[in-house]
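Possible regression after last week's pipeline update?

I re-ran a chain I had predicted before the update to compare outputs. Posting the input and the new output here so someone can diff against the archived version. Not blocking, just want to make sure nothing changed silently.
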Amino acid sequence: MSIMQDAVTQAIAARIRSERAKRDWSIEDLARHSGVSRAMISKIERAESSPTAVVIARLSGAFDLTMSDLLAAPKSEPKLLVRRAQQQVWNDPGSGYTRRALSPQPDSPLQLVQVELPARVKIGFPSSAYDFLQQQIWVQSGVLHFTEGPRTHVLQRGDCLQLGPPENCVFYNPGGKSCQYLVAVVLRRRQ
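New output (post-update):
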């Protein structure tokens, strides 16, 4: 594991412990809310395992946080500008999926995230990760097959999709090159 990746793993571990403590949740409580096993949560909190994108989505959904919020560095002075070199980048150790948080303030009600999905990679996320979000996906390069519930949308460069009500979803890049897309996320509170 690289020094940078190790620092990210440590930061994720600290953030999950902190969010659990804020809610006075045990590891068992978080496991019940997220669907992630107690053993995996324990490994993540001890920074012995770097979570995958799906695990991050499940944990962030359990906390009613966006993935950007859960992955964000500790709070600092509000920013109006974040340079590319300062944008937080996270790599899924299992799939190679790369996520770049573009927004200057991760706790803003509007967040922009750029994703690079490697060739022939498929990642599924549970609807619980999106219950409190509205999202649009704009494909910048490549082809993306996006499945939400029973519907599959084939998105090509320049296509933009407004997601419907939260359903289990799958992002799939069927091509031989990586697919890059932007996700615009707006927070909405659970009913």
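Follow-up from reviewer: compared with the archived run. The longest strand covers residues 133-141. Marking as no regression found.
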